[in-house]
Design goal:
about 500 residues, isomerase, nucleotide-binding, ADP-dependent NAD(P)H-hydrate dehydratase activity, EC 5.1.99.6, 2 domains, Carbohydrate_kinase_pred_CS
Length: about 500
Amino acid sequence: MKQRSFYHLITPAAMAAVDRDAARSGIDSLGLMQKAGQAVSAAALRLFPDAMRMAVLCGPGNNGGDGYIAAEALRMSGVDVQVFHLGDPALLKSDASSAFLAYRGKLRPLAEYVPCSGDLVIDALFGAGLGRSLEPPVVEIIEAINAASVPVVAVDLPSGLDGLTGHPRPVAFQACHTVTFMARKPGHVLMPGRALCGSVEVFGIGIPHRILDAHRGEVAVNTPSVWEGSLPKLTGSAYKFTRGHLTVFSGPMSATGAARLSAMAGLKAGAGLVTLAAPAEALAVNSAQTTAVMVKEVDDLSTLRDYLQDTRMSAFVLGPGFGVGEKARAFALALRDRKLVLDADGISSFKDKSQDLFAYFAKNVPTQLVMTPHEGEFARLFPEIAKDQTLGKVQKAQAAAKCSNAIVVYKGADTVIASPDGAALINENAPPWLATAGSGDVLAGIIGGLLAQGMPAFEAAAAGVYMHGEAALRVGEGLTAEDLAAAVRPLQIETAF
């Protein structure tokens, strides 16, 4: 999985290792802190030139050191600055101590800060490395500042926000702007962290990329740079079967709409042929409402096996409106040697029987199974992982992908796409108006359409999630699932990432 550094996310632990290696390589660590603090002061002056007072809240570690440097730079620029410190600044160590000693302005304890109209708060209490819950006095100050709607510029990450999971511990500043250094952390992209950070500025403070590269993990932002090389490419010799045949299974007569949404999305995503495989009772209603999508009677396991004799059937979507129960389980297991998107009712059918599913697909290398659960479906399929409060969304998706030998698309405003090998992508192009009935059915169809065209499962899932967001942006607020399916387009990548 080849990725560009700008899109790769660095965990707090990895960033601490980067800082250590930078210092060991001979780079002046105080110089790095000075660059960081000056970047914060520049952002404050650029974004809030009319602030009447800049209150810099400095913590007991290196994040506080960044704050002291920013405060001195602002003071030298003629700004009314006051530092409010947490703990005894005399106990600061190393670079943070040097930064404190260089500050020549006003200084008061953090408990004495009272939000005032015209203030800008610069939050330098704790950065991304916060590994514990905040103490009650700090919680009270953060809540008071948030309640007063005083603008906040955060240094590295809003204090109280877990840099790995994006969850408050237990509260965090609501920043309007965050300045972080070298690379974003998962907490900048995962919800609710993404919303709490405001706009995020990544400032390069001079650490060589070779050091950053040595500590990169497997988590990145979902961008075309990850999968653009795997996108289907049309040639002059292409015809419908070379573009793949997607089959979407329909539910009974009263629940056919979801499958049709998936089928249309798969067709729009570029599959050469799409068939709705429906029970006899649903043939008429599906036939009456489709034109380019074909309809085929597939009633039971016997007729499914007959249907699978045609090896040109290259990918399948099972779950949207299909119904929960034994039939869904039997169909899914019959497809273990095929490319399969398991969604909605297909996932819920394996509640309390997940090990049957995992065992059937355990030997597929590479995996051909993509599962697309929302939070409730995830908890049904992976109950032990879901209830583990020590894991963030990325870690849950990674654990689920590993134990199921499947690509797991853990849906939401911050959809995570995870592979059994540990690779994970966080999506961030999805607008909030995607939260509408039928949206997930469209996503399943897009991924199925890409699988049908020959994309590997991880890349198809990631590209499908991105295409889903792009289609929603194309339609705009107020979309329905029908609008969304109609707006799906094959991706045309024009920008070099």
